[in-house]
Amino acid sequence: MENVNTINITLDVFSAVITIMIITYLIGRKSSTKENRYFLWICILNLVFLLGDLSDWCCNGLARPWYPAALHTGQFVYYAVTAPFLVVFLKYVVEYLSSYGRVSSIYMRIGLVMAGFHLVGCVLTPFTGLYYVISEENIYRRGGAVLLASILPVAVYGMTTFLTWKFRKTLRPRIIVALLSYVWIPLLGQIIQNFFRGVATLNPAITLSILFIFFNLQLDRDLQHEKDKQELAEANIRVMLSQIQPHFLYNTLAVIRGLCDMDPVGAKEAINDFSLFLRANMDSLTNIHPISFEQELMHVKSYLNLGQQMYEDELEVVYDIRTTEFMVPALSLQPIVENALHKGIRKKEGGGTIVIRTEERKEDFRITVADNGAGFDMKDLKKQGHIGIENVKKRLEVMCGGTLDIDSIPGKGTTVYMNIPKGENI
After folding, report:
1. Are strands 327-328 and 291-292 parallel, antiparallel or unpaired?
2. pTM above threshold 0.85
3. Pick from 294, 368, 381, 293: which is nearest to 337 by CA?
4. Where are the alpha helices (DSSP H) in 263-340?
5. Are 94 and 108 in contact (CB under 8 A)?
6. 247 vs 37: CA distance, rounded Å
7. How far, rounded to the nearest angstrom, does the alpha carbon of residue 406 sit from its chain's CA centroid?
8. Residue 426 has pLDDT above 50, yes or no
């Protein structure tokens, strides 16, 4: 018997430790959602439930002065806390399913009424021995009507099962399995404990179901977080693209306008090239998904062709393209090249050279855009108003997990490095 008590105490203590860890985590998160608040109360009531059960295994049959009081108090708490525990559990299930459809209030009413009857039975038990009896020798025994104490749990588990079945068409299989595990694991533990006195299987079963709830909550939270992140990213991408598109178009039209004064024939060619570029690539201007680097490079070449027509001998472009087998956000290279031209080469007397290089490295693909233009002090990067570069940096991070780094020396030029991890290009 002592060995059985030791095992039961160990199981209860282990369950209590797990519950305390979950409670600590939930309190630390300070979540304000109803589901999480109900789940927190489930954990707190489960801890009280465990402490009440420990009085049986620690004090039963022992005659020290305070043991009878501890056993009486513990068993009353053990039975009484079942009512609020199951009501909160049912409320949690109803709240969870409410996001999938309307849940009638009748279920909570039934739960509350039955919880009230259960509490009345708990109050009467010390006087009538309804649920349990504690002898003068401080020995706990089940009462003649102990099975009445199982009516509330069975009813709550039954309603949960019915609601799960009712919403089965709108619930994902994972949710159905999780909800049923909350029900059938404790129910199985209670059945075993009712028929095999001395084996404390109910409390570990309840704690196991709480772990399932916890893991399900975490998974739902992670999935929702990813969904929110994706929606936010796509919204940001659209905003960024809306900032870049006018900027790109205005500068291109400025190039053509300049050619109209300097070289009307060249202006006609530029307009023709520009119309072909827009007709073939307009989709990429609003693309919220990565495109092939080869396609992005085509945009840049068209842009630089226009630039070379306008600035003639002031602009030289060198392409050192060693690989194109990777993806980049649409309009990611073009703003970098645009900055190199207008804030680097054009600000340097006599013009200069822009070098565009790609290379495949062990873990990523690197794009390098270097110019020998005016350069700038890195401390003044934010003051320069490089909106296009900041947009590219954010989109690289969100869409490709990439990075963007800048190295600039006043009077000598600027180099921009764009690194795209290979894992994002499989």
Report:
1. antiparallel
2. no
3. 368
4. 264-285, 293-311, 333-340
5. yes
6. 49
7. 31
8. no
